[in-house]
Design a protein that fits this description.
The protein is about 75% helix and about 0% strand. It is globular, with a radius of gyration of 19 Å. The protein is an all-alpha fold. The protein has one domain.
């Protein structure tokens, strides 16, 4: 009697297929997404998508300036920071879903948030365009979370759309403010050197 070996936990092909599934058929993905079980696979998915996004985001730097970020930063720091961000974001979004009437807890919220990391490699290609990549990532993520609200959490589409539109606007405003402050600080540091921000970025 033959036995079927279990599917490996880590498979780049499976990760790529899962990312494509989330992007192309998000409603079906969230409707059929597992609600329970180990979080190892969604955590690995976050790590793989984070590394892919970091590598793609470094391409303009490599092609235009001949510089490449340290491989250690991409393989160690990026996954760790991304996992931490997903854990924190999951807690915040879980509270919002609870306020909207979701019966599910943190594990489901984490799976939903981790799934949206499928967008990271796509939006990373626009990272070299100021604000565009970040705004696209926020808008697309809010769209996916709205779908997850309806398909997984049983929340009305109108209620979810209003909530995540407001959240997206807050996030976009925060990112714009942060980037503006960073640009201002950099400009102040360059001024004594007689270098403008435009010259520095050229």
């Amino acid at each position: 009697m033959s036995q079927t070996s279990p599917a490996p936990l880590f498979s780049l092909q499976r990760m790529a297929q899962l990312a494509l599934y989330v992007i192309v058929r998000p409603a079906e993905y969230f409707r059929t997404m597992p609600r329970q079980g180990p979080l190892a696979e969604p955590m690995l998915f976050v790590v793989v998508m984070a590394i892919a996004a970091a590598l793609l985001a470094s391409l303009p730097l490599l092609l235009l300036h001949g510089q490449a970020p340290a491989l250690l930063d991409i393989l160690v720091l990026t996954p760790g920071l991304s996992l931490g961000a997903v854990f924190i974001a999951s807690a915040i979004v879980m509270l919002l879903w609870k306020a909207l009437g979701s019966p599910h807890g943190y594990q489901v919220a984490f799976r939903c948030v981790a799934a949206t990391m499928a967008l990271a490699p796509v939006t990373a290609l626009l990272a070299f365009v100021p604000y565009v990549g970040a705004v696209l990532n926020i808008a697309w993520t809010m769209y996916l979370w709205t779908i997850a609200s309806v398909e997984m959490h049983g929340i009305s589409q109108r209620k979810a759309a209003v909530a995540f539109t407001l959240l997206g606007l807050l996030m976009a405003g925060g990112i714009w403010q942060m980037q503006s402050m960073q640009a201002q600080i950099l400009a102040e540091r360059l001024e004594p050197l007689g270098i403008t921000l435009e010259q520095f970025e050229a």
